[in-house]
């Protein structure tokens, strides 16, 4: 054999050895990757759906004036639904372009009601919503949008 053909044979042998090593190492890792997905799916089936109703106390405010965003968080789970325990996170967001931007955050009361104060330092017609991020107990949810005019 000439030197170039020996070089090719060595490269081919290295490729075979490397692929065997990778195949041997990949099997346990892929099994580990499947296990968390299955447990996460089983855990996710215990989550409950929420409905958020929200609005502002004043639909038109002056620059720097404060208004309250009030509403309620209710579970829509049917017969097996449990009462909201309170302390669930609530975020008031405004639409900026095509992105929702956080304005204020807080938690709901034990009865599911919430009230957050907001004020703005820009004159604009704003589109707002209230958002509940996903938690261990509940799926994420958002209210219908509502308008606020800052003059």
From TrEMBL:
Superkingdom per UniProt: Bacteria
Keyword Signal recorded: yes
Signal peptide stretch: 1-31
UniProt keyword list: Signal
Protein name: Neocarzinostatin family protein
């Amino acid at each position: 054999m000439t030197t170039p053909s020996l070089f090719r044979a060595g490269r081919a042998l290295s490729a075979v050895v490397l692929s065997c090593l990778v195949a041997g190492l990949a099997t346990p890792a892929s099994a580990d990757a499947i296990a968390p997905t299955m447990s996460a799916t089983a855990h996710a089936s215990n989550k409950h759906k929420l409905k958020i109703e929200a609005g502002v106390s004043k639909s038109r405010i002056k620059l720097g004036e404060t208004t309250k965003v009030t509403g309620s968080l209710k579970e829509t789970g049917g017969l097996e639904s449990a009462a909201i325990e309170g302390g669930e996170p609530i975020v008031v967001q405004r639409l900026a372009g095509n992105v929702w931007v956080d304005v204020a955050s807080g938690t709901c009361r034990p009865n599911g009601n919430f009230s957050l104060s907001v004020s703005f330092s820009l004159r604009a017609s704003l589109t707002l919503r209230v958002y509940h991020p996903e938690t261990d107990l509940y799926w994420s949810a958002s209210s219908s949008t509502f308008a606020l005019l800052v003059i």
